[in-house]
Amino acid sequence: MLILICGIGHLMASLILLTSESGGINRIAGYRTKRSMKNETLWKLAQSYAAKLLVFAGVMHIVIGGIVLLFFRYDNEFYLFVELLWVIIPLFMIYGLTEWRLKRKEEEMINAKDR
Fold it and tell me: What pTM does this model have?
């Protein structure tokens, strides 16, 4: 059940990221890290890239959560721990991939400026 609920939450978060992309650097909502808030280009890239990853993770969680609800029962407390890990690990992956993409873009911008 937790996987399914978090999948819906991921889809809602992706909508927030997509709406925060258009208004410029936002200190309230969006993918806000030190690197993503350096300039407008990195901000827009971070919002769109993280939103795409969140949509993928959200759809994946909804599908897997639905399958889990249909075929598995909540028999023990270990099951909740597995669900929690299943939800948390993709969030770390989204963060890591987005920061990696931002770092590459930042290096491209620096190299282009040096030419």
Answer: 0.85
